[in-house]
Design brief:
By secondary structure, the protein is mainly alpha-helical. The chain has helices at 2-13, 20-34, 37-45, 47-51, 57-65, 76-85, 88-106, 111-117, 120-131, 134-140, 142-154, 164-171, 179-196, 209-225, 232-244, 251-260, 289-298.
Length: 310
């Protein structure tokens, strides 16, 4: 796809303008999705940012698990009461991401360090508390789902599988006439699929595909019926998950047409302007990275690669 290639080239040529976290995000996604050599070069250069070799690993993880929330996030007012209810979640989910990146990108097993910083039983209890609290699952959405899937990969090695049928049913409980619920629902279902893929590095197990297809079929209808209420990041996340699950949808053409009409005047990258929930505060080059890497990924078939750099 010509536009996706142009956007990719623009980001790669201007990657020095990205902060380290966004550059690492870009590198991991492109490496996993395409296996391109230049993406692994980015990850090798990001090693010190993730590994922090001058600091003890336990000290790094301690800092992350205790990291305070800053700024605002999507649907902030709905989510904050549940972050207050489960104060371990925010830092724990960041810590699990770091442990995952250390292993999946740099070949470092940080589980023992993790369990010396956060008691394993507390992590498992938090999992059970979330699974038993449907309003928390619905409002925390991405944060809860990422936590559960990361925990499954890191602690249980997929030997204690999550009930994705339950997640499918939770999705049906959102009030789809509400613009915030629409956003949370799309995050909820798409991050189930992204978590199952271990962030774009694994094929989805065949026996689970029917449930994930049901999620995507429901999202397809929701997006079609509420197209103008849904931001472009959410729409592209849906397309990426459609690729992951080999789900055929007519929304590719409609969403790509919106992308064609959303090129920034500042460069060859996509901004979010043509919907009622546009993320105007995320339309500069750096803050558009998430949207644009999703667009790049959505333009080709899913062929997962290992992101190991060793």
């Amino acid at each position: 796809m010509e536009l996706a290639n142009k956007v990719y080239s623009y980001y790669f040529d201007n990657k020095y303008l990205l902060e380290e976290d966004k550059l690492f995000h870009f590198g991991t996604r492109i490496a996993a999705w395409t296996g391109k050599t230049e993406a692994y070069d980015i990850l090798r250069k990001s090693r010190d940012f993730i590994v922090q070799p001058s600091i003890k690993l336990t000290d790094t993880l301690t800092e992350i698990v205790n990291r305070p929330q800053t700024g605002r996030r999507n649907t902030h007012e709905l989510r904050q009461p549940f972050f207050d209810k489960y104060p371990l979640l925010y830092g724990a989910h960041l810590t699990l991401f770091r442990v995952r990146h250390l292993e999946s990108v740099y070949g470092i097993d940080a589980r023992s360090a993790l369990f010396s910083v956060v008691d394993k039983d507390k992590l498992i209890k938090l999992k059970q508390d979330l699974l038993n609290d449907i309003p928390a699952m619905m409002n925390l959405s991405t944060f809860a789902i990422n936590y559960l899937y990361l925990l499954e990969k890191i602690i249980f090695n997929d030997q204690n599988p999550l009930s994705i049928n339950d997640f499918l049913e939770i999705g049906y409980k959102y009030k789809t006439e509400n613009i915030q619920d629409l956003q949370l629902l799309i995050y909820f279902y798409t991050h189930c699929i992204i978590g199952e893929s271990n962030f774009y590095t694994l094929e989805i197990p065949t026996d689970k595909l029917p449930i994930y297809h049901q999620m995507l079929a429901y999202l397809e209808k929701i997006i079609t019926d509420n197209y103008q209420k849904i931001n472009l990041d959410n729409k592209l996340e849906f397309l990426v998950c459609a690729r992951i699950c080999n789900f055929d949808t007519k929304l590719f053409d409609k969403i790509y047409d919106e992308c064609d009409q959303s090129i920034s005047n500042e460069g060859t990258f996509i901004i979010d302007i043509h919907n009622q929930n546009a993320q105007n505060e995320r339309n500069n080059f750096a803050r558009s990275e998430h949207r644009n890497v999703l667009f790049i990924m959505s333009s080709t078939a899913y062929q997962p690669h290992s992101t190991l750099t060793v």
